[in-house]
Amino acid sequence: MEAVMIGEEPIGMVVAVIVALLLVAGALFSLLAALGLLRFPDLYTRMHAASKAGTIGSGLLLIAAGIHALDAAILLRAFAGFFFFLLTAPVSAHLLAKAAHQAGQRLHPISVTDQMPQDRTGTDG
Amino acid sequence: MTPADLVHSATTFALVTLSLALVLTVVRIQRGPSLADRVLGLDMLVAIAIGFIAAIAIRTGFNLYIDIAIALGLVGFLATVAFARFILARGLSPERPQTATPSPEPRLPKRGKAGQAARRKRRSEG
């Protein structure tokens, strides 16, 4: 039934518009995440930019690829990948922030509060 | 403008934008003051590479690229977790040897609860 199609396949205008919007939105989210990664003053604020906007950016691009395939199995796979990224990005960001805080990474002086008590054995352990 | 043309130009825009994001992330990795910044840049690099793979999957029509993107996401997550454990075990900043210079040690308790306690003690004594 479904042959392996290489190259452009005939898709409708509505699908094309949805895919194009998702592509542009995902690419802009990724660009904003990279810009935040470059411009924010602190590891923790950088992490806030990278792990939220970056995840949404790559997830939107993945969903665009799933919709463009016009196949339920591939769309489901793309959604599974997006769900997996949504699960793992906060875990890895939290682990990295906790490790950096325990190793003595300082907050930027503009930060208002640091609710986690400074670990005393982290740096010389 | 046919639908194929629209999708083609959208993928072109996405690829150009993602290339710009890749360059910005590489600048952060090169500049990053500490090891944790570089690990964060690596994580972001993996996310941008996943977006690249999705855009290339749309452009070429190979749907198998989506599986590759999922696998790359898994590898990136494991790499970030491993680097976090490494930072936890070893400490930050490979540029600054911790045994040679004693200067960063007394600056540490100035911030947070310990600094507040020290300041309070100094205030109550004086």
Record keyword descriptors for this entry.
heterodimer, A: 125 residues, mainly alpha, 3 helices, 0% strand, B: 126 residues, Helix Hairpins
In short:
The complex is a heterodimer of chains A (125) and B (126). Chain A is mainly α and 125 residues long.
How does this structure look, described?
The complex is a heterodimer of chains A (125) and B (126). Chain A is mainly alpha-helical and 125 residues long. Chain A has one domain. Helix content of chain A is 67%, strand content 0%. Chain A has 3 helices and no strands. Chain A has helices at residues 13-39, 43-68, 72-102. In chain A, helix 1 (13-39) packs antiparallel against helix 2 (43-68) and helix 2 packs antiparallel against helix 3. The longest helix of chain A is centred in the last third of the chain and has 31 residues, at 72-102. Chain A is elongated, with a radius of gyration of 20 Å. The termini of chain A are far apart. By secondary structure, chain B is mostly helical. Chain B has one domain (3-95): Orthogonal Bundle (Helix Hairpins). Chain B contains 5 helices and no strands. The longest helix of chain B is centred in the first third of the chain and has 29 residues, at 3-31. Chain B is elongated and about 75 Å long. The N and C termini of chain B lie far apart (79 Å). Classes of the chains: A mainly alpha (125), B mainly alpha (126). At the A-B interface, helix 1, helix 2 and helix 3 of A face helix 1, helix 2, helix 3 and helix 5 of B.
Write the layout of secondary structure elements.
The complex is a heterodimer of chains A (125) and B (126).
Chain A: H1 13-39, H2 43-68, H3 72-102
Helix pairs in contact in A: 1-2, 2-3
Chain B: H1 3-31, H2 35-60, H3 65-90, H4 104-107, H5 112-125
Helix pairs in contact in B: 1-2, 2-3
Biggest sheet details of chain B: none
Low-pLDDT residue intervals, each spanning 5 or more residues of chain A: 1-8, 121-125
C-alpha-based Rg of chain B, rounded? 23 Å
Largest interface (CB within 8 Å) is between:
A-B, 74 and 66 residues
The gross shape of chain A turns out to be elongated
Major beta-sheet overview of chain A:
none
Chain-averaged pLDDT of chain B = 82
Distance between the termini of chain B: 79 Å
By CATH reckoning, the class of chain B would read: Mainly Alpha
Shape of chain B: elongated
